[in-house]
Design brief:
Length: about 450
């Protein structure tokens, strides 16, 4: 069977060249994750070279699966927000090891696969209030931006005010600030792969800083790009492959409410992140019919669910579909061949670990976190703002996610506030049993931490 007939290139009014260019464009738009993910997960104690290899290979294989199973032109990689949830809520917040965190990723991905193939997706989707779905996505955006600003030294700890503005003349903070403004400029100008290009330009400026000796103090040296001594690695760090198996014992030894909270948080964010990404992309591709149903969307959800399992096996946080796939779709990518090319580029990128990890430091990747945070915050435009009842849970979700430094706690506060609002309105009987179960679990966790 030819590529043309398998992917229906003629039927979708595309060709091999167009799909290749679309795949390359999507990869470049997504590739910032190769620098961000190792920096993020490395905070847990995971080897950054191992995370890089896991990110590149798991993303590559998942894109191949998406292309072959669903034939959608969508790229997949560790989700922004999922990696923050893994690092700061599960590992640091609950004090479990990263191996136990990977075990949780594996279990939640299996559950997501079951939900996908069983057809429960729509029922669960309808049970959760729209405003809460939007608030969680936006809150994660604020959280990512805060992580980036803190990591670069733009925001620092302060005994009097808890947080304060750092010295913007310090090399790491100045470099990050330059990177943020450059990336915003490129994005406003609608430059393709703006986030990736922003990283590259910022890294080059950082290398110039390093060569000139600006930021040579020990603290800055850990945040500034270093001149790489080699470009291609001849050995791969596969130390994280299968490491999740060793985490099951510790995971199931944690208190039951913590266990439920961890699994649910991963599943919840994965579920709505996937839904909120794939449906608009399907619409952009022209796959939506007059009834609002997306052709082949079940296959796309299946490919996305399988990707989470692949990520856990290789040793990274949950993978998900990337909205940056819209860049390739905008250039004419319409079939799974686009996703295949994205996967190939991710697999090839596994060769460049020393180069990427030496220049994509916290100061460089700060811009990506801030810009992605801005884009996720834009979801608030769809919040129903007409009354206090809808706004209160949104506000509490976002503010508590930031102040508690925990995505799960933000979700918990949002649900509990929603329950108080609905009881006050006399509409508590309208809440589904699923929502009540979650509210009870969240109350137990908030007050007793069991």
């Amino acid at each position: 069977m030819s590529l043309n007939s398998f992917f229906k290139l003629d039927e979708n009014k595309t060709n091999f060249k167009t799909e290749f260019i679309a795949g390359l464009t999507t990869f470049l738009a997504m590739s910032y994750i190769l620098g961000v993910n190792p920096n993020m997960l490395g905070i847990t104690g995971m080897p950054v070279t191992g995370v890089f290899f896991a990110t590149a290979v798991a993303s590559g294989i998942s894109c191949l699966v998406m292309g072959l199973v669903s034939k959608y032109p969508v790229g997949l990689a560790p989700g922004m927000g999922m990696n923050a949830l893994f690092t700061f809520t599960i590992v640091i917040g609950l004090g479990v090891s990263w191996k136990a965190g990977l075990a949780a990723v594996f279990i939640s991905s299996i559950l997501f696969l079951i939900i996908t193939v069983s057809g429960l997706r729509e029922a669960i989707l309808n049970a959760i209030p729209v405003n809460l779905k939007l608030a969680i996505g936006a809150g994660i955006g604020f959280f990512l931006a805060f992580i980036g600003l803190k990591g670069a030294g733009i925001i620092v700890a302060d005994e009097s005010t808890i947080v304060a503005l750092g010295s913007l003349l310090a090399a790491p903070a100045l470099l990050a600030l330059i990177g943020i403004f450059i990336t915003i400029f490129l994005y406003v100008k609608k430059v393709p792969a703006a986030v990736f290009l922003g990283l590259i330009i910022t890294a080059i400026i950082g290398l110039i800083f390093t060569i000139l000796g600006f930021g040579a103090d020990p603290v800055a040296a850990t945040l500034m790009p270093q001149v790489p001594t080699e470009i291609v690695s001849t050995s791969f760090d596969v130390s994280l492959f299968g490491a999740f198996v060793d985490g099951f014992g510790e995971l199931f030894a944690t208190p039951i409410t913590n266990l439920i909270l961890v699994i649910f948080s991963l599943l919840f964010v994965m579920f709505f992140d996937t839904t909120g990404t794939l449906i608009p992309l399907a619409n952009q591709c022209g796959f939506m019919d007059e009834n609002g149903n997306a052709e082949g969307i079940d296959g796309a959800f299946l490919g996305d669910a399988i990707s989470g399992i692949i990520g856990a096996i290789f040793g990274t946080s949950t993978l998900t579909a990337y909205v940056e796939s819209a860049t390739g779709i905008g250039l004419g990518g319409r079939t799974g061949l686009t996703a295949i090319f994205v996967g190939v580029f991710f697999l090839l990128s596994a060769l460049f670990a020393p180069f990427v990890l030496s220049i994509f430091t916290s100061s460089v990747t700060c811009a990506a976190l801030v810009v992605v945070g801005i884009l996720m915050m834009a979801q608030l435009k769809d919040v129903i703002w007409e009354d206090f009842y809808g706004v209160a849970p949104v506000f509490m979700t976002i503010i508590m996610m930031l102040l508690t430094y925990s995505i799960s706690l933000g979700i918990a506060w949002g649900f509990v506030t929603y329950a108080v609002v609905e009881i006050s309105r006399g509409k508590w009987k309208d809440l589904s049993w699923l929502v009540w179960v979650l509210i009870i679990i969240f109350l137990i966790y908030l007050f007793f931490g069991l």
